[in-house]
User: Fold these one by one.
Assistant:
Number 1:
Amino acid sequence: MKTPFQIRVYRLLLLLFPRSFRNRYGTQMEESFAEMWRERRWGGRTWAESNFSFWAQAVADTLANASSERFPVRLEDNEKRTSLPRTRNLMESWATDIRMAIRSIRRSPGVVTVAVVMLALGIGANVTIFSLTDLVTLRPLPYPQPERQVFVFAAYEASGAIYQPMSTPDLFDMRERSRSLDLAARSDSSFTLTGGDYPERIEGDRVSSNFFSVLGVEVALGRSFLREEEQGSAEVAVITDGLWRRAFGADPDILGQTIMLSSEPHTIIGVLPRGFWYINNLNEVYVPIEAPEGGQGRGDRYQEGVGRLRPGFTIRQANAELEEIAAGLAEEYPETNRGISAGAHPFADRVYPQQFRQGGLIALVAAALVLLIACANVANLMLARISGRGHEIAIRSALGASRRRIVRQLLVEAMGISLLGGALGVILAMYGAMALVSLLPDSFPRVDQIAINGRTLAFALVLTTLTGLLFGILPSLQSARLGIAGTLQQSRRGAAGPTGGRMRRVLVVGEVALALVVVLACALLIQGFFSLQSIDFGYEIDNILTFRLSLPDEKYPDDADVARFWEDLLPRLAAVPGVELTGGSWFLPFMADPVDNYEVPGESYTDSDQRPHASVRMVFPDYFQVMRIPLIQGRPFSSAHRLDQPCALIVNEAFVARHWPGDHPVGNEVIFGGDSCELIGVVGDTVEGSREHRPMAYFSGLQVTTESMYFALRTSGPPTTVVRDVRSAVARLDPDLAIYRVRSMREVVQRALSGLTIVAKVMPVVATLALSLALIGVYALMAYSVTRRTHEVGVRMALGARSRDVLRLVIRQGTSLTIAGILIGLVIAPLLTSSLADFLFEVSPFDWRAFTLVPIALLIAALAATYLPARRATRVDPLVALRSE
Amino acid sequence: MKQQWFHILLALVEQDLHGYGIQRAVLERTDGQIRLWPAMLYRSLSTLDEAGLVEKANTPADEQEDERRQYYSLTSRGRKRLEEEASLMKSWAEEVGTLIPARQRSKT
């Protein structure tokens, strides 16, 4: 049976242990490891993350124990093993090693500078990308014990949909019944803040009274909400530090003051600490949740559950318990809760989009490969340097230095070079992090915290140490392997002998392979990026201004009020100079995607859960024209589709394909929420958030009303030029209203796709580094080999070889190494590129163009790098060459 | 005594176990708190073996097919050492009881 990959990797790790220990326990350890691998838990995390954490723990375990096994300091019987003189001796010899290392580094500043710069580039790239990855995947949230923070969601057993919102009564029941979790509820809200110079729309949340205590956050001023304030009658508010400073000039007497939120007075009872943060940076005010009386509204699911694991409970236990409670609720309230379960999920996973986290990991892997390439280059440099120092080493061994001692001294030297490279790398990373921040949108959670800090420095230090070991260990072992006699003999020819040569070639082949992998991944990502630029969204995104407008319940209590307001507003917006058409939708593409069940008469469903569901949007009549979504059949919404008229429905092609493929669907009946709706038209499919076209159902926003709408205005010029006039048009109709989330449609789309954009911008930098380092490696090896073969070339030329033959000889050697590297790279590459699928849109992760062009380009570049040293070989003067022996 | 040594000895009280079996037993007893990764596990076993607290045991008859599995058992010395450790821990626990009155503890 073939040994599995992970076992082979683990076997390499075990080489860190002394041979005797390995002989005794090696197989058993492998076996244990294999068992753990089989049983490793996914813990609700992605494949990459679980693997990363599994390997990180395995490596840490091996490193820690192997080093203590090799350098035992047994405290229990220290009098027996460690005696004072030995310690002093140890210290002294280390000091000597360090002194010698410094001396030797100073002796060859040129080589060392090249090595340091190469390492700095590799380490700098890694630290830069780590500063982002750390924030996105590893760094705890700004709450005490962030790993115990979870978010709680509903799960629909029939459709398999998870991470769904919950209803207030369900959450409150769970809060009472759960032993493993402290549970709070929150839901998005926004308010018009009046009383200042102009009305302003501010974002806020409605939260349960224990929301802040569940997060582990205490108010800086005043108090938090009380349980009895959850009934909705208490008009109190907690504001953020930002709003306090911005709107109230940090007034110390703020508590007890009244502010007008959507025309209702609220008493300020607390101010949150500076830097309080939840999900996004936009929220400025918190008001209590309105708990429905007597458990009403169990079917209205719009709350997000926020939980904190109580001491001693794990997320698994919490999940099991939530499932149990949900099952109990389903029995008690079958009409609203049947088939609906609940679960908890690590909070950090929710804060950053999956794409960012995956992108971060991919970039980190690519950067790690760059560092490996740099290490291979430096190892080659070191080999060359050591072979030049064969004499010195031989003399030291002749004078009684043990092999171990020589290896150690060379390692200390390597460590010194690595530390210099690390220091320079950290400096580079500071600039890198600044550049990275400039690529991220302002709304990116905690973007301000991407910087070189303690954690990134610690990472840099670990990386530097590993790097030093990695490039130091091969050359040192190599030098130690040669006996005194061998070294003295070989040093005369200034070469490290056949083994050294083979090792150098292997290193270069490895470099080329890794560079190919990185460049390939980059080429694919760039291809994906361009294919995204030209992707057919099904709508046009240029020259559209979008913003949101919400009507307060208090002032617009009925559907009729809301519909009347929209009807009044739409022509006024259309009259604004520069606005061509006025449309709007409940949610625009790449925003929320609410779905609903429906029934098609004639189709039978075994259970109410089995009903199909579709994305639902209320749109203003001209929405399709504004977005240039084609009407394929039937007619658009008109002013005839109003509140009191029979329900009209427009669906997209995907919807038609699901129920009436190849048929004329217009005129059919579809039942939504018990109401029968006539299908009056079919529009083209659109990209709403994912690549696949999902079935969509559109209603007229004047018939099925909602108090919050996103507007989309098609403008004749740049969208932002009309913002002022739009604002005043709204204010003329209702001076207490304010438009918010004002953006161009292009901005909306770009923001949604920024994960890919960032990866597409970062990867070329990483790939360029990888490519240049690998080419330097090829060049250096060939240059070195030409120098070493000067004598041989001289003999050949003296015997009549022409310079063309010599050129061919050298180039053939370089090419064969490059081709070997490319072939190996092509085998490894699919392992990495297959994880890119999410970023590539229409491009296959094994796109044949990238997989042919990149290797060819790499081969040509490597040929160029070989050509220069080869040319030099042809200029060898036979007389000089022969004399050089 | 190091925590992981204590737990390994404790895992071997009832029955002889192989490496991964010890790892499972400790994981279960500590509710997932202590996961002995292979290097930690076998270095501890090596130390305990040298100290004469555990020894290699014969593979039980029903497990013969997998000859890679080495079973370990507690020596009488190991059992004694474990008992000493336990009574020491017990005395510490009692000390907590006398230092912090019950009334005060129940509050936290």
Number 2:
Amino acid sequence: MLFILLSIAIQARANDTSYYAVIRNSLELAEQEYSIITFQNLANTCDRIITMREKEWLPVYYRAYAYVNMAYMTEDEEEKDRLLDNAQASADAAYKLNPGESENQLLFALICYGRMEINPMFRATIYYPKANAALEKAKELNVKNPRIYYLEGKSTTYKPAFMGGGPEAALPIIEKALQYYKEFVAPYDIFPQWGEESTIELYQDCKEGIKEN
Amino acid sequence: MKYTLLLSFFLTQVCITFGQTSIIGTIRDNNGDPVPGANIYFEGTFEGCTSDTMGKFSLTTTIASESVLIISFMGYKQYRQALTPGELPLVIDVTMEELTKDLGEVVITVGTFAAGDESKSAVLSTLDLATSSGSFGDITSAISSLPGISNPGEEGGLMVRGGERYETATFIDDMLADDAFTAKIPNIPVRGRFSPMLFRGTVFSTGGYSAEYGQALSSVLLLNSIAMPKKDELSLMAHTSGLHFSATKKWDRTAFSTSTGYNNMRLLYALVNSNIKWQQAPVSFSENLVFRQKIGRNGMLKAMGAYGYDNSSMYYTVLNTGEDVLYKMKNHNYFLLATYRDQIGKEWILHSGISYGKDDLLMGIQDTATYDKHKNTTELKLSFAGPVSKKIHLNVGASLFIKTLTQDYTSLPGEDVFTSDFVSPIGAFFTEAEIKLTKRISSRVGARYETLSLSNEAYLSPRLALACKTTQYSQISLGYGHFYQQAQDDFLIYNNDLKSEKAEHLIANFQYRRNSRIFRVEAYYKLYNKLVKYDSLYSIEASAYNNHGDGYARGIDLFFRDSKTIKNGDFWLSYSLMNSERDYRDHIQAMTPTYLSRHNLSIAYKHYFEVADSYLSMGYTFYSGRPYVDPNISKLVQQETEALHNLSFSIFHFTEIFGKFTMLFAQVSNVLGSNNIYGYRFTTTPDHSGRYRSEAILPVSRRFFLVGIHVSFTGQTEI
């Protein structure tokens, strides 16, 4: 009996991979060209899947991820906030579908960084602690998720030294990220895997920053 | 499984080769401009594509039977067309219909300046309140750089749109704080009692405020205390005039904070010349205890206890005799406050509060009069807020505010004590609805009913506000209301029958806000009625006081802020044109109040230097001459002082000392050393040559400065 149930479960899962190819395509396009259009395309792809597969986490996750990236590429503040509102709605939905997934927390952190950038004078006090809390929560869920340390390392690099930031303080965190990227095995090929190249770049920048001092 | 996947991949490839159709086209909007980013797909499929920057798309599909082609994009009406993809490529050019643009939420902004970091409509940040140049940590002096506020150096506090200081009421967590400012002695400005660091989200209204707030003729300052601190904190601040210690301990659902302050102006006045002859330079002590407890799912209990002590004495020249008399002030102030907030059902909020205040003030003029005042205030309040429909949000509530005051007055040592007192309960009911009339228009309709048994009065004050979004970035608002305030304690104590004073506000506002730039302009007209008049200031006869005064104030306020153009820089400008005349107090006719300048300009610039880890704040204020009456010229025609200037600097440097987050700061006012004269006092009788002798009213000192250090033992202080 158990065996039958299990195999049905596996089958159900296997069926749900039907949309992977479409996401894979859109992700590849977005990787080739970092632009609003390619990410809008990713969001559109997710929208199409969401209307047919309401309960699936991945398309909701990628929809949020697409809107965060569009927001990062947008200059106008009101537009940026609007895109982040969109990202937030999907990130909240993704969290509801799969609350134990640490990647959702990273979405929350990314949204906070985006909000903060709009007007640091007003918003840093609100969103910086929120982003940190999200990273901490992510560690609780999956301490070996390399993207946590990439984001933490990045924010530490640009934080002033008197607040415990700077390249020197960031370097061990970035090294940790690099190591976890090496160890990281994606459960399936289109599981979130962003950040490795940027971490390597950040690592180089940090090393140069330390030399300059 | 691998095999199946491979197979299905193979099959798809085959299909594409044999049954593939392309649909190409261009998507434009009503104006003929391309729509990039649109989602183009057949209903019920994953496959689809996105229009490019030219609005062009190319969709390949394997579908052969009739299907619905959908084109969708946010802000446009979805396009649907049934078609059968044939063998030949289809060309489809589509014009998408733009939906009425969502202009965003309409927020009623008339008369309101929001400060804080949570609200998107905030004009000021918490940091602004703490670091405004020349603010010396006083929450009110930072706010006083907003337009519409007179800032007479000898008064302090917030004097809004021609109103006196007492016309602004301060509310902490929506409960009236009757003594939010230190006691007043001649020529010394009052200071706010509460530290800006206790609050998040401050709203300052320069008129037309909500029916929830009463007992304020001109303005309300709404301070919301921090709900739950984010982490433990321990910090120490020391500067040239005092010492401050604060600590916060946070548990899972509970938090406790204490903050202790000691100020002594002696050192400062030893270093700078004071225009005041001090016997005892001001010494003050303050203690704040704050307790927070989360209750249940959404409940929050906030309790606060504040104690303040002030002591100073100075020599004051009586012009008629030329003698210096010793003027002493000693003040103990206590304020206890507890509020509880919880959610009822899904959407309604209950807000309840209780407060108790006690103020003991001893004022004495050596060898002559002493006033010994004891005041108690108690307030109970309960309100409910929530939606009654999708478009109507209601706020209803009631409060009871009881004040008792006893004053012992002795005219000369050894003389009889003259005791006066009163007990005054004020009952209030308010109801207010925020109604979204259309997507662009929102209104607030409210009324407040107050009943005062002491003066045997009951009145109903209507409050109205209307806001209309004109574009995504701009809106216009209108405000109107009646505002009542009980006669001041100092008059009411001699004549318990005095009626409440009344003001009517009419305000029009335009605001444009985009990309961290804010521009707003507001015009107002304010009509005063039933203002208290008296024969002479110190009269103890009830008959000397009446409600026959009146007056008006009108003007235009401009505010511009830009924290975008210069990276790490923040610029703001506020200007107000004020015009007011009042026939009140001991005026013999309608005259401009002496604290009012016609032109008021304040320019501030702040810059954060990343390399130096420093924050520089500069401010310049200009006030045109202030009116005064020179009895040598005319008792009826007002003269004007020279214009007043003040250029001030503040610098904050962040560093690490012994691994602790440290802030070093220095503030200096009146860098240019302008000789500012606030007005003149005259003898009440002419001397033998027939002249009234005069003395200039000067700042406490020409220049102030403050140098200090703030060390946080627990990491960065959250400002």
